[in-house]
Structure prediction request, 154 residues.
Amino acid sequence: MAKALIVREGDVESVGLPGGGAFWLLEDSERTDGLLGANRLLLQAGADGTRPHHHTRSTEIFYILDGTMEFLVDGALNRVEKGGLVVVPPGVVHAFGATVDGPAEFFAVLTPGIARFEYFRQLGRIARGEADWSSMDELHDKFDVHFDGEPDWR
Prediction:
């Protein structure tokens, strides 16, 4: 049986992104017995969160905390403002990023959870120029992140 979980800000790992953006790694599914994984992400104006991809096992839920995001969902581009919610079931191709209007911050939950913190750490290394996208080639199945298109999705 899963136990209740409380995560305090001081215990959260931060992964820096260029220009002041960051991932905050809240829960990696291990302390919730695989129930969920949760992150917070700040993207600078015009920055992409990731390229088009899908998950075979997890639903991904996004809640916009601040700013405006662009989401590519099943081939359609959607603007979602602060307070908006996006739910992406398994198998649905999606990508996301902040609009050019300004930075955007969101909270994301993947359920069921899969230990993905190392995936997010690697995305940070790629964004900072410390690794390239080919470093993800052997990690798709492990992290249930399967790329479905070119990086330039907008």
Remarks:
- The radius of gyration is 15 Å.
